[in-house]
Specification:
With 162 residues, this protein is α/β, with parallel strands linked by helices. It has four helices and five strands; from the N terminus they run E-H-E-H-E-E-H-E-H. It has a five-stranded mixed sheet with strand order 2-1-3-5-4. The radius of gyration is 15 Å and the shape is globular.
Length: 162
């Protein structure tokens, strides 16, 4: 299988407030011109349906929400290689992502994964709005993702004017 260079994957439920921060984030990237080999994907809560997308890229940058003890809007970078490497209190799709990573690891098809987690205070059912703390963290998240991309040798496009 020929692997594409890089996937930027937003994970989360767009209809659950801050839980959808990964989806909100990648939607800000979709209108930019990315170099060949870079794919932007709204993964939603797909879980195992993302297996093919993950295994056909050599590097994956994921963005997801996490319920933890950090203040809302805190951004952390994790490099998970096994399910146990994910934060203990991932959001509503935790089992699917952890199982997906474990399955790809067992099949020896796991790409290099960089997981940006954004701390959230709670999940807001039936809301597409981000809290002010999480929304306010998006520019910092973009800066951290851009920095990682530059370290990986990817030319970062200028943000699109929407």
């Amino acid at each position: 299988m020929i692997k594409n260079e890089l996937l930027i994957l937003g994970i989360g439920n767009y209809l659950m407030g801050d839980e959808g921060v990964g989806v909100h984030f990648v939607r800000t990237l979709e209108h930019e011109r990315w170099p060949e080999g870079v794919k932007i994907l709204d993964g939603g809560t797909a879980g195992f349906q993302l297996m093919e997308d993950l295994e056909c890229h050599s590097t994956v940058i994921m963005v997801d929400a996490t319920l933890d003890d950090h203040p809302p809007g805190t951004i952390r970078l994790i490099e998970p290689r096994f399910a146990r490497d994910f934060p203990k209190a991932m959001s509503t799709h935790e089992i699917g992502l952890k199982d997906l990573v474990e399955a790809l690891s067992l099949l020896d098809r796991l790409p290099r994964i960089y997981l940006f987690v954004v701390s959230v205070e709670k999940i807001q059912p039936l809301s597409i709005e981000l809290s002010s703390a999480v929304e306010g963290a998006l520019p910092q998240l973009r800066g951290q993702v851009d920095h990682l991309l530059e370290q990986l040798g990817i030319v970062v496009p200028a943000p699109a004017v929407v």
